[in-house]
Amino acid sequence: MMKDLKTELTSEEQMKTYSKYFYKPLAIPNPELMDILKLGPMDPAKALMPENINELLDPSYHEVENGYCVLPNGAAYVAVNNKFPGVTVEMINWWFAWHALEDMRYMLWFKKGHYGISISDEDRAIILDPETKMIQKFQGRTHNVIEDAGGGPEDIQITFLTPEELGFDMVRFKSPAVGTVIGANGISSRRAGGPKSPAIMTHFVREISGGVEFRSRFWLGYHMVDKKPVKMIPDGIQIPIQVAMGLAFHNVQEYSNLASFLPSLYEEMEEKIF
Questions:
Q1: Domain named DAPG hydrolase PhiG: which ranges (predicted)?
Q2: Fewer CB near the last or first residue (10 Å), C or N of the chain?
């Protein structure tokens, strides 16, 4: 059964202390990143292909850290580098465990495009178990979200993977090269109709002076299968550039907003999940 879109909080949700973050005005999206994206699509030759994901572990930056394009094989690519002042790696790991447990937690992240979230009873029990390590409260879990990433509401199944499952070299996977990675296979279904759309999502989090940076990479049309990227869309099919563009702008909007309140929310919740 399809879950209804939620745009308002229930009276019970309004009673919770952190409901104030839902009613807080949305943060202004990072204007520098928005201006870059407004320049139009990037050169596909400068995209990081999923086979080369370990290049994210290099200490430098890529030539294009913010951009979007359609790749020659018909898949699409999105890259965004969001900065999180005052945020730690621990806060990021906590957030991806915490927000899955209630609709409101997902909605307050970005109320203009987040309309609900659900998880299985099994995953809920794992997240709530105090013996579960924080990263295991999202790695291996599946979030079912209702989200508008620029093209209208979609039902998206996000199956979170370990760094190893994403293809990272675990010998190199350590600080300071990386703080944490939030990665997943996604499959989305537009409520307006159309084919299901696969994607690989990777948020590569690295510590920087005064906070962390969120180097997001999306490969639309791909899934990770047995630690290797596989193009899932048929040859001859091309993902519309508008899809990649919408996701790029949405990414800046939602993470600019999260960055604006995550430190205070984390302090208020005292690192607790529930």
A1: 51-267
A2: N
Q: H or E segment at 129?
A: none
First to last CA, the chain: 27
CB 134 within 8 A of CB 94: yes
Q: Which residues contact 3 (CB under 8 A, 6 or more apart)?
A: 116, 118, 144, 146, 155
- Reported as a pLDDT band with limits 50, 70 and 90, residue 90 is very high
CA–CA separation, 77 and 218 (whole Å)? 6
pLDDT tens digits for 138-156?
Answer: 999 999 999 999 889 999 9
Please say whether the beta carbons of 66 and 33 come within 8 A: yes
CATH architecture, domain 65-269: 2-Layer Sandwich (3.30)
